[in-house]
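Troubleshooting: if your tokenizer reports a length mismatch, compare your output against this known-good record of 224 residues.
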Amino acid sequence: MAITNWPLSERPREKLLQKGVSALSDAELLAIFLRTGIAGKSAVDLARELLSHFGNLTNIFAASQANFCKIPGMGIAKYTQLQAVLEMARRALSEELRSGNTMNSPALVRDFLRLSLANKQQEVFIGIFLDARNHAIATEELFSGTLTQTSVYPREVIKRALYHNAAAIIFAHNHPSGVAEPSHSDKVLTQSLKQALAFVDVKVLDHFIIGNDTALSFAEHDLI
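Known-good structure output:
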């Protein structure tokens, strides 16, 4: 049955307007994005199929173009729209980080990092450079690949910190395994960077490890 034949109170768009966005299920939110279904399937049906195939919204967002477009009813147009939505969300969160004290907004930092790093196929190491008021100046991908203490160069991090005239920095990297647990190498690397940056009066405020659904903070676990 087409969504237009549903009771008004059950249609995703009308439900959003009446009850607010938080009242919608993942499938209903995704259906609003999809807008239309295909022959024999409503937009909600397609949304449920996407969630069933990929497992959750995070995996849908991280899907490659090829894998996304394999799903009946999906295509290049829907894929590009999805990527545009994700990039707008990242930029909006980045603007919020620049406008406020990041240490007062741990949830905002987590949301930005998860949106930026979750489900990447290789490890990516980024730095959020902060001014003296802990407002974000810039976010940069510093290294990528299999990260070890020897593949992340403190000298290069110091050069970028000085370039931005940063007073502090927050590090983050993802674990493609999806498990947000710090390894011994992660701990050693963090301490090495902290010591190196101390020589140029740049504080390391935190280091986040991003998994599929979680973000572990070194600061919250007394690891920094």
